[in-house]
Design a protein that fits this description.
The chain is of the alpha/beta class. It has a single domain, classed as Alpha/Beta hydrolase fold, catalytic domain (Rossmann fold, 3-Layer(aba) Sandwich). The protein is built from eleven helices and eight strands. Strand 5, helix 4 and strand 6 form a beta-alpha-beta unit. The longest helix has 26 residues. The chain is globular. The structure holds 2-acetamido-2-deoxy-beta-D-glucopyranose. InterPro entries: AB_hydrolase_1, AB_hydrolase_fold.
């Protein structure tokens, strides 16, 4: 860039002009520490700045291989359809993926149940993930409005079902707040909780907070208190960064360990971070653990006439997302149908048979 500025190098190669007064050399010596400091600050600033994301479908960016819809502000969302064809569906469900995942990480309903109940599943890359454009301005609210626009662009009708896992589970609370009138029923799976949500007793938030390993307390604390440091914190090498980003086995429960081999099918896993870690992972942390202006505890029953249900599922042995906040929410919101799985960890939606159990309960209310 500097080369384009049009300035020609000065004849003496950019050096300071020859001193014509004896006192000048003293002046430069005095200024040197300040110049060095500014140089160091500039270096530090560069370290804090994330590189720009690699935009899908642009030179140097990942290719666009999936169909995409265009949002009102011009961003694209890439999507993936599964289950029965949309025009044969009796139940249309939008699935919202978690941290470090993409549209292919959809709930794997069995073909038999999909046929039997007429289930159509629509999943999409969240902004900054996979082949969806980044959204540096994304917020707790914007994702709910993105989902509403996606449903309309895909002509899902006035109401649709919604399910989300982990970070995508936390987004279910946003949808319940901002687009409740569009929902037919919701299944919230192992939702990430924000330790700073208001209305939780201090001991409940603290107990959940303390389930995390030390390095995650730091990573989550930085995302909340100093979001501008998030990029640096998670890329520096002095301190261990988020254990979720670095696949630390210390956060895997016994049942999670048993599910991990199933991840072999995730040959597409590279797509999650292909735009860069900042617009995908780091921004997820900055929004999810950021400062919310409301708490899920303030939400009202979206189905006061009983025309739909909100199901909340959490594994009691979850070491990635502590169960405490979900447990407390279920006590405070009587309209949330709570399923605590006593031996499950975080990855229960991937375990054999669980997708069908979760969707039957959502669509039929089978387990009540
Ligand atoms: C928090 O404190 C209350 C009141 O003392 C108690 O009933 C509850 O069990 C505690 N919860 C946790 C998670 O420690």
């Amino acid at each position: 860039m500097a080369a384009d500025s049009g300035k020609k190098p000065s004849a003496n190669g950019g050096k300071a002009p020859a001193p014509n007064k004896a006192s000048d050399s003293g002046g430069i010596a005095k200024r040197l520490p300040r110049i060095a400091l500014m140089f160091l600050l500039a270096l530090l600033y560069r370290q804090l700045q994330a590189p720009p994301p690699k935009i899908p479908g642009t030179p140097g960016g990942p290719p666009v291989t999936s169909p995409r819809i265009r949002l009102q502000d011009g961003r694209h969302l890439a999507y993936h359809e599964s289950g029965v064809p949309k025009d044969q569906a009796k139940h249309k469900i939008i699935f919202v993926h978690g941290f470090d995942s993409c549209r292919y990480d959809v709930l794997r309903v069995s073909p038999e149940l999909a046929q039997e109940l007429g289930i159509y599943l629509l999943s999409f890359d969240r902004p900054g993930y996979g082949e969806s454009d980044p959204h540096p301005g994304r917020t707790v609210k914007s994702i709910a409005l993105d989902i509403e626009q996606l449903a309309d662009a895909m002509e899902l009708g006035p109401k649709f079902y919604l399910t989300g896992f982990s970070m995508g589970g936390e987004i279910m609370w946003s949808c319940l707040k901002y687009i409740p009138h569009r929902l037919a029923g919701v299944a919230i799976l192992g939702p990430v909780g924000n330790y700073w949500w208001s209305g939780f007793p201090a001991n409940v938030s603290r107990e959940a907070w303390n389930v995390q390993v030390a390095q995650d307390k730091w990573a989550v604390g930085v995302a909340h208190h100093a979001p501008w440091l998030t990029y640096w914190w998670n890329t520096q090498k002095l301190f261990p960064a988020s254990s979720v980003i670095s696949f630390n086995p210390a956060i895997m429960s016994q049942e999670d360990m048993a599910v991990i081999p199933k991840f072999a099918y995730r040959s597409y896993a590279y797509q999650s971070r292909q735009q860069g870690e900042h617009e995908s992972l780091h921004r997820d942390m900055m929004v999810g653990f950021g400062k919310w202006s409301w708490s899920p505890l303030e939400l009202e029953d979206p189905f006061p006439g009983g025309e739909g249900k909100v199901h909340l599922w959490h594994g009691a042995e979850d070491l990635i997302v502590p169960v405490g906040l979900s447990r407390y929410i279920s006590q405070r919101l009587p309209w949330v149908r709570y399923h605590e799985l006593p031996t499950a960890g975080h990855l229960f939606p991937i375990a054999d048979g669980m997708p069908d159990v979760i969707l039957k309960s959502l669509l039929l209310g089978d387990d009540e």
